[in-house]
Design a protein that fits this description.
single chain, seven-stranded antiparallel sheet, about 40% helix
């Protein structure tokens, strides 16, 4: 993932509600993993048509991965194993205008009965444009795009302070 992209995952709304928005259930020692949320809540195959209407289908490098869009810009990915969805996510390039695609992804999330999960901020929320823009603005990608030198200086300071402590 490029530093100028924000990653957002779809998570089934029913799983989120049954688990009281407990975002910690999506994290383990290796980082985040949405596959447990998808085990019992598979979307209909309509997701293909929804995503086809948002971005062009892209060539995948894995038989377990469906892709739309362009990886350094905006893209959508669907991971599945033996036809069981394990993750649906998208990345937005904050160097580009992303409002239209964000609206389309919000519509897709609602149609699929999903909420948004932002792993980098450990938040889950209902598809809502105001909330989505708010979280995007707080992302590391937004900090980088707004002020690349300031962001890199901040990262460098954090690394230095962790190394000396």
């Amino acid at each position: 993932m490029a530093i100028w992209q924000v990653l957002i995952e779809f998570v089934p709304a029913q799983w989120v509600e049954e688990n009281n928005y407990e975002v910690g259930l999506l994290y383990g020692e290796e980082g985040y993993d949405t596959s447990p949320a998808w085990l019992e809540f598979q979307p209909s195959r309509d997701y293909v048509n929804l995503f086809d209407s948002i971005l062009p289908k892209a060539e995948s490098w894995s038989e377990d991965l469906e892709l739309w869009g362009e990886s350094p810009v905006h893209d959508i990915s669907v991971w599945n194993e033996e036809d069981v969805i394990e993750s649906i996510g998208f990345r937005l390039d904050l160097r580009k205008d992303f409002r239209d695609i964000a609206k389309q992804l919000m519509t897709a999330a609602e149609a699929l009965g999903c909420y948004f999960f932002i792993p980098g901020q450990k938040v889950i929320f209902k598809p809502d444009m105001v909330a989505l823009i708010q979280y995007i603005r707080q992302s590391n990608a937004a900090k980088f795009v707004t002020d690349p030198h300031g962001y890199l200086d901040e990262v460098s300071k954090n690394i230095t302070s962790k190394g000396s402590g």
